[in-house]
Amino acid sequence: MATDNQGVLPLGSEHDIVASRQHVRGLCQALKFSLVDQTKMVTATSELSRNTLIHGHGGRMHWILREQNGWRGLELVFEDEGPGIADLKLALSDGWTSGSGMGLGLPGSKRLVNELDIQPAPGRGARVGIVKWK
Ligand SMILES: Nc1ncnc2c1ncn2[C@@H]1O[C@H](COP(=O)(O)OP(=O)(O)OP(=O)(O)O)[C@@H](O)[C@H]1O
Ligand SMILES: [Mg+2]
């Protein structure tokens, strides 16, 4: 894959979250996503990058422009070396939080994209991938 079709951004501060949102909006525009789909992807980015920062104590976001059977899409992978997500089913339940949040970030994001996939790796960090197809 060409190097300009993927990249990685740090998620270590509030400013990084803003930068990742802006980058994702730009990618969605380049892919000619509808305004609604752009907003959905940016909202999911917001939630997942905040999880990386707060629960994962910082990490990074990989972005990959995908092409499959003539479809174009955007894949984002949020990765950290924090405590990891021990119970995937619980984490994806509406309203469940281990902290003081609303517990809606993960289940909400899942509904905004076409694919959401959590890699189970308790103790070795978290890896949450999403894909949205045009
Ligand atoms: N990167 C991560 N590392 C470790 N645990 C995580 C991570 N992301 C999510 N979790 C766990 O999954 C739970 C649910 O995440 P979710 O985003 O749905 O809710 P929240 O972050 O607690 O609250 P909200 O997003 O509504 O403010 C979190 O409370 C946390 O325990
Ligand atoms: Mg959250």
Strand proportion, as a percent range, falls in 25-35%
How far apart are the termini?
A: 19 Å
In total, the number of domains comes to 1
Radius of gyration: 14 Å
Instruction: State the total count of DSSP E strands.
Output: 5
The computed structural class is alpha+beta
CATH topological fold name: Heat Shock Protein 90
Q: H/E series, N to C?
A: EHHEEHHEE
What sort of overall outline do the alpha carbons produce when their principal axes are compared?
globular
By CATH, the superfamily comes out as Histidine kinase-like ATPase, C-terminal domain
In spatial order, strands of the major sheet run 1-2-3-5-4
Could you provide a short overview of the structure?
The chain has 134 residues and is an alpha+beta fold.
